[in-house]
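Ticket #4471: structure output looks truncated?

Reporter: J.K.
Steps to reproduce: submitted the chain below (148 residues) through the standard prediction queue, then opened the result file.
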Amino acid sequence: MMPLILVLMNITIINNVMTLRIIILIIILFSFKFPLLSQNKTSYNIVFYNCENLFDPIDDPRTNDNDFLPNSKRSWTWQKYQKKLENISKVFLATGIEPPIIIGLAEVENYLVLKHLTSQTGLSKFSYKILAPLFMLTGFGLDKSSNI
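Returned output as attached by the reporter:
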């Protein structure tokens, strides 16, 4: 089983960028050979979820994360962050008898947050592969990536 975590959108969405990302997603979905799809299954879970500002409490000068720091007005702490990660993973695990084979996400700060979601929550036992846009891998955060 090779489930995927996809990050498709950021906070500031431009229609042309969104359309391009949807087209890329469709191409990806039809070009992958999923081991699950060769089994005698009739349905699979594919989920899209808006994480609504999934930020870690680390100050990253490359992202607009000032509201999600320990000394910010939200008082964003590791405990709050871990709770949000766990709650998001519970949503995915509650979608059916088996976890989704593909999870699309929006409003995620960076690649490290995805790693935490897939390694420090109930999703860790499913070996999700992260397929993130280039801006997440090169350090351009949510708000600063809208022109990519």
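Triage note (M.O.): checked the attachment and the full token line is present. The radius of gyration is 16 Å.
Status: closed, working as intended.
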